[in-house]
Write a structure and sequence with these properties.
heterodimer, A: 684 residues, alpha+beta, 5 domains, 4-stranded antiparallel β-sheet, B: 300 residues, alpha/beta, Rossmann fold, Alpha-Beta Plaits, 2 domains
């Protein structure tokens, strides 16, 4: 019998034997933490001497990168967890070693605990020591408590992920009896669901014409993300998971996987060591999981080249057979077993065929699905065609911290009256267009909690009246009303951002808001679709301003919040324009030929002749928001504005001058093709 | 006591042991013989708690062995190709094993190792095959467990060491009721050490008997009968298992008690007769022939 004291002696003895793990880990982190720490210090000192760009925030950003978002650390965590899991239990791959360990008078779960604990301990201790050592070195830069906090936090987060990877890898090792198969098994555990989800997403996007392809809203997103890789990415690098929640989830996952691995170890038959899969009962489920995926992967490769459904169907069956044969060879480690279990092969080929057919022939009517009006809680609609989209008008705090998509906008609209949208969808389904000219996204929140997204492609002329009905409804336009408390306003003209009103000018801000809201209420669909944008206004909330100030300090403002919530001002927004004119600012820039360096866009021709430019400018009209409004006989044309002329106009109309390094200003127009021909090819 | 009841062990679809019933009494040296693939190693691994039986049970002192640390701490198993951590010296291995076998006698081990001239400071992987076998045998003896399971352990030992180890085993058996179970395909190896033998054949035990009983119950006689006496006259002796003739010399194997056989021979009034001891192999030939097997196909 093993007493408690003996157990700890065994633990220590095993630790001594495997001290090499600690040595390797220490060596690896020496290169990852210590050496870069010295280089960071010298770099920052050098920068401090040359300019004033270095501040505490940017130092902390670099340190956070070193400890938390360091791809090298991520790689080491994953590689070491995998390697340690395999090496720690590698005795299970040899009958001789298995016999030695399993004849010893120690319970298997205790042996498992000794081996697993030491692997984790011998990795974590040097990792922690190296983190702290490097933090000590970095603390010479100042801010030492913050540096230590970042180092410890990085250690804790990455350690949680190490445990998760280790537990999953150990589980794979417990199922297998060959080192090669163990690595394959670990690969399957790490990548199976991302691959499966991606394949299903591919099938959905390829064969369902109304599929809206935003990954965030895919029903297979959860499948794709059910992987330690994806979790690591979302948790550590993307910050999509809250720190505490992420730690708890990964620790809970690790505990579940390690408990499952321990249970399997207890049940593991010693005599099956050196076989591919040690649990006979696991063979069929593993095969069932892998063969259809293999079939879809082979289909994916061939469909990408041939784009033929009949060929894809043949490839699916072929892929299933090939996958089955490979799995049988791996199971038995014998090439002669390539055609073993023919019945399984046949059944799995049929299953793969059925899975593919469900998508290829839309068996469940995905494309024709319209939820019943009484099952919908709310809905959203966003057009995809215009230069402008609803997202430009629509503001939401949610956008501040997320990369938003048009699907997000649709989701946030929460329109109660969905009947007009349903009518539009029905019409779109009745008049499908191969050469579509207009597309839009529809979102339904069902009462049962499901999110439904669809994208429809139609001819614009077929649905224009329905679009008008939706757009002109009060509920829809109410979404664009500015109704927050704003502390200032910015505007964007010719891609340059200007301050308009600061927090000291709250009255003016309020007045502009009212004028803008009046224009929004008065805006019709014709204004929206045929109108063009003169400039953009940004109404700033206190929350935005604080975030912007913080980002500005870190030099991340343009990347993170640069274009946040710049709402368009159309030529039809009389109240807004009149208010700003009173403030001494005009926006109706109409260039003459002398103001234009050159025009282009027609057959890639660059037009520099002043006379031709003048003629063209007299015949162009501003590019409408929805291009289809001007008809197929119109072409795009752009006028590249002369910097001096623009500066003159800006200074005369109450705007400050643009920076010298700004990109050239361009004005976009449409023009009738015949008019272009008459200007460019004069009669002989 | 080790007791197997309807013990079956299967590898895939192949039965390595099928419905084996056997007993190994304490304080005796049990020899387990059989051809390669007969199931000897499987039987020992089941006894050591390495394998879990598919059917039936294997018990030591009326307790199941598998995952029973109390029982396993009284069993020391030496496989035919024993694993050892490659960087270890014998002393290090002994120290590690002493964590599991708490009764392991360090001093006795050192003394025996010195006696057999095993260099304790050399790494085990520099040892010869015979030295390694001897080392594990010594560790097994010094572990002070009640049961010592040896799988083909004598294979590779030189005759002098083999004899010395046999003496050690015999002494331990006598002194502290050690019960060694020695598996071998070589009958001659077990002959002078075992008290009890079991013959495994194709996963089943053909028989399991006390060696003394076997030896007492079967005899070989060489005799030259009077002129005129034929083979038929000799066959009148009860329970003749085998008879061969070379010139006028008959060699017969007879079952039964020595006194009764001698009485019957004297009735034949032979010119010369002599009762000779049988080797274990010869006893096996005779015993298995009774069961309808050709021993030469079963063991060496």
């Amino acid at each position: 019998m093993i007493s408690k004291s003996s157990f700890f002696k065994i633990l220590l003895s095993d630790m001594k034997q495997r001290m090499w793990i600690a040595c390797i880990t220490a060596l690896v982190f020496l290169f990852v933490f210590l050496f870069p720490s010295f280089s960071i210090i010298s770099e920052y000192r050098e920068m401090r001497e040359t300019d004033n760009l270095v501040n505490a925030a940017s130092i902390m950003q670099g340190i956070e990168y070193l400890y938390r978002e360091n791809p090298m650390v991520a790689f080491i965590i994953m590689a070491m967890a995998t390697m340690l899991a395999v090496v720690t239990f590698s005795y299970l791959f040899s009958r001789k070693k298995t016999d030695y360990y399993h004849c010893l008078p120690i319970k298997r779960e205790k042996l498992f605990a000794v081996k697993a604990f030491n692997s984790v301990f011998l990795f974590e201790v040097p990792y922690f020591v190296m983190s702290i050592l490097s933090a000590v070195i970095l603390s010479t830069l100042g801010k030492s408590p913050a540096i230590f906090a970042v180092a410890v936090k990085g250690f804790v987060l990455n350690s949680c992920m190490f445990l998760l990877f280790f537990a999953i890898a150990v589980l794979a090792v417990m199922l297998t009896g060959q080192i090669v198969v163990a690595f394959l098994g670990i690969g399957v555990f790490y990548c199976y669901f991302p691959l499966l989800g991606s394949m299903l997403l591919y099938l959905q996007s390829t064969f369902f014409s109304t599929f809206y392809g935003d990954y965030e809203f895919s029903i297979f997103r959860r499948v794709i993300e059910f992987s330690p890789f994806m979790y690591y990415h979302n948790f550590i690098f993307e910050g999509k998971v809250n720190t505490i929640q992420g730690c708890i989830t990964s620790l809970f996952g690790s505990a579940v996987f390690i408990a499952a691995a321990c249970l399997l170890y207890r049940k593991r038959p010693s005599e099956e060591s050196s076989k591919a899969i040690v649990f006979k009962k696991a063979k069929l489920p593993i095969k069932c999981a892998l063969v259809p995926l293999g079939a879809l992967l082979i289909m994916f490769i061939t469909y990408g080249m041939m784009e033929s459904v009949p060929v894809a169907l043949v490839c699916v069956v072929f892929g299933a057979i090939v996958s089955h044969c490979i799995i049988e060879i791996i199971y038995e480690f014998d090439f002669k077993c390539i055609f073993a279990n023919k019945l399984h092969c046949a059944v799995l080929s049929v299953i793969s065929f059925v899975i593919f057919s469900v998508f290829a022939f839309d068996v469940f009517g995905y494309d024709k699905y319209i939820p019943a009006n009484d099952s919908v809680e709310y809905c959203g609609f966003v057009n995809e065609n215009g230069i402008l989209s609803e997202e430009m008008f629509f503001e939401n705090k949610y956008f501040l911290e997320n990369n938003i998509s048009r699907g997000d906008i649709a989701k946030e609209m929460k329109l109660k009256d969905c009947s007009k949208i349903t009518e539009l969808v029905k019409k779109s389904l009745n008049k499908p267009a191969d050469d579509y000219t207009y597309s839009y996204i529809v979102y339904y929140k069902l009462k049962n909690g499901r999110d439904i997204f669809r994208r429809y492609r139609v001819n614009y002329s077929d649905v224009r009246n329905d679009l008008k009905d939706i757009f002109d409804s009060e509920e829809y336009k109410a979404l664009f009303i500015k109704n927050e408390n704003y502390i200032g306003v910015n505007y964007k003209l010719f891609d340059t951002k200007y301050k308009l009103f600061t927090s000291d000018e709250s009255e003016k801000t309020e007045a502009l808001k009212e004028a803008y809201n009046k224009d929004i209420k008065a805006m019709t669909y014709d204004d929206f679709s045929k109108g063009s944008v003169l400039f953009y206004l940004q109404f700033k909330t206190d929350e935005y301003q604080k975030l912007a100030d913080e980002y500005r300090k870190n030099g991340r403002l343009d990347d993170e919040l640069g274009d946040y919530n710049y709402a368009p001002v159309l030529s039809s927004f009389e109240n807004t324009l009149a208010f700003l004119e009173k403030e001494g600012k005009k926006f109706d820039f109409e260039p003459t030929a002398n103001d234009v360096d050159y025009m282009d866009g027609v057959d890639a021709t660059r037009i520099t002749d002043n006379e031709k430019i003048a003629k063209l400018l007299s015949k162009v009209q501003p590019e409408p928001n929805v291009y289809e409004e001007v008809g197929n006989d119109c072409v795009h044309i752009a006028a590249h504005i002369n910097d001096k002329a623009l500066d003159k106009w800006l200074s005369e109309n109450g705007h400050s001058l643009r920076d010298a390094d700004e990109a050239e200003a361009v004005m976009y127009y449409v023009i009738n093709e015949r008019e272009v021909e008459s200007v460019l090819k004069p009669n002989p | 006591m080790i007791e197997a009841k309807n013990l079956s062990m299967k590898y895939d679809d192949f039965f390595a042991l099928k419905n084996v019933n056997a007993q190994v009494k304490n304080g005796s040296i049990f020899g387990l013989v059989g051809t390669n693939g007969a199931g000897k190693s499987t039987f020992l691994k089941l006894c050591a708690g390495i394998l879990r039986p598919n059917e039936g049970s294997i018990e030591i002192d009326s307790k199941s062995v598998f995952e029973n640390t109390e029982v396993k701490s009284e069993v020391f198993y030496i496989s035919d190709d024993q694993y050892y951590p490659s960087t270890y010296t014998p002393t290090e291995l002994m120290k590690e094993l002493s964590l599991f076998y708490t009764k392991l006698n360090n001093e006795k081990f050192t003394e025996l190792a010195n006696k057999f001239e095993l260099p304790l400071k050399r790494k085990i992987n520099t040892y010869s095959k015979g030295m390694r076998k001897l080392l594990f045998m010594l560790l097994g003896i010094c572990a002070q467990t009640e049961y010592l399971l040896c799988d083909e352990t004598f294979d590779g030992l030189d005759p002098v060491v083999r004899q010395a180890v046999k003496s050690l085993l015999a002494a331990e058996t006598q002194d502290r009721s050690l019960t060694p179970v020695i598996a071998s395909h070589n009958l001659r190896e077990l002959e002078d050490i075992c008290d009890h033998v079991g013959l495994l054949y194709k996963g089943g035990i053909l028989f399991s008997k006390d060696l003394n009983d076997l030896k007492l119950n079967i005899h070989r006689i060489q005799l030259v009968p009077q002129k005129g006496k034929t083979k038929e006259d000799i066959l009148k002796i009860a329970d003749v298992a085998n008879i061969s003739q070379r010139g006028s010399l008959f060699t017969i194997t007879v079952r039964g008690e020595k006194e009764e056989i001698e009485r019957q021979i004297k009735q034949l009034d032979p010119i010369f007769y002599e009762i000779i001891d049988l080797t274990l192999e010869e006893i096996f030939i005779s015993e298995t022939e009774v069961l309808g097997y050709d021993i030469k196909k079963l063991v060496l």
